[in-house]
Design brief:
- By secondary structure, this protein is of the alpha/beta class.
- It has one domain: Alpha-Beta Barrel (TIM Barrel), CATH 3.20.20.
- It is built from 8 helices and 10 strands.
- The structure holds iron/sulfur cluster (SF4).
- The site of iron/sulfur cluster (SF4) has 10 residues, from loops.
- The site of iron/sulfur cluster has 10 residues, from loops.
């Protein structure tokens, strides 16, 4: 298969318990059934090129609203294919003791949290998604970052609010914030401590979204997780490439990065310029700290 990103992205729940102001997801209220999810994973594994390690990402909405399906998939498929790994992006609010103890014994399911959660830091290999919004000052971000470090988080993913308007002043402040964050990481790496930034490992040709095989709650297969955004209905036919019963094969050209970028540009309308600017600031930050961390580790 000719995907930039070989992950399978499952939109296991199109619901969420909260409404973040910057969130572009359309909440349709649907959850993926176990039958659909299981068919999708089987087809994905059957069609995956040899030599590629399977990675399955649970996405939403809030995936833990459909925990029984996620858990059933991990239990069913992990043992069968030893290199299979799972990821879940969650707001963390449903991580009760039962789920935490399951996750502690299942390191093959990597968790990315976007809110501070009781004992969240203790999960094996947990990532923290730090969302940067227009109303946050550099000082408040640095303060929160120091709290997260003290709590025990070691791996971070930085995410400026995309698809919303940023003024020139706010962009300047964001640039200052990235410089402040870079200083923190330089200090940690200079001490030889193992802190990581995820953005440096994950490449996507389109801001925010995954350019990865994406299965919606109803089993339709798309070329990108873009499909979950509000107002995508008229473009869904361009992104649709199959279903769990008609798995996509060579229609992959549609997944081309420029094609997805153009769809996204039209969809974003007047917020596209701001999106490109914050994405560029993020890219510069990640590239600079990435170089520094490599040098610091030599
Ligand atoms: S927690 Fe995630 S899915 Fe829910 S509203 Fe916020 S950004 Fe959207």
């Amino acid at each position: 298969m000719n995907w930039v990103d070989h992950r399978l992205c499952l939109l296991v729940s199109r619901r969420c318990n909260i409404r973040c102001g910057f969130c572009p997801v359309e909440f349709t209220g649907e959850d993926m059934s176990l039958e659909t999810a299981s068919k999708a994973v089987k087809s994905y594994l059957e069609h995956l090129s040899s030599g590629i390690s399977p990675k399955i990402k649970f996405f939403g909405g809030e995936p833990f609203l459909n925990w029984p399906v996620m858990k059933a998939l991990v239990d069913e498929f992990h043992g069968k294919r030893s290199k299979i790994s799972f990821q879940v992006s969650t707001n963390g609010m449903f991580l009760d003791e039962e789920k935490i103890s399951y996750l502690l014994t299942h390191p093959e399911l990597e968790v990315t949290l976007s809110f501070r959660t009781k004992n969240g830091w203790s999960l094996p290999g947990v990532w923290f998604t730090f969302v940067l919004t227009q109303n946050q000052s550099t000082e408040s971000v640095i303060e929160k970052m120091n709290v997260l470090i003290l709590e025990g988080y070691r791996r971070f993913n930085f995410l400026p609010a995309y698809f919303s308007k940023w003024s020139e002043n706010e962009l300047e402040e964001l640039e200052k914030t990235f410089k402040g964050l870079a200083k923190i990481f330089y200090g940690l790496w200079d001490k030889g401590l193992d802190y990581q930034i995820k953005n440096s490992e994950v490449y996507s040709p389109i801001p925010l979204y995954n350019a990865a095989l994406t299965v919606d709650a109803d089993g339709t297969v798309y070329s990108s997780s873009l499909i979950e955004s509000r107002g995508m209905d008229s473009l869904s036919e361009f992104l649709r490439i199959g279903s769990t019963t008609d798995w996509p094969k060579e229609k992959m050209a549609r997944r081309d990065g420029r094609f997805l970028r153009e769809i996204l540009r039209r969809w974003a309308g007047p917020t596209w310029d701001s999106t490109c600017r914050v994405d560029e600031l993020l890219t510069r930050f990640v590239a600079s700290v990435g170089e520094y961390s490599r040098e610091a580790c030599v």
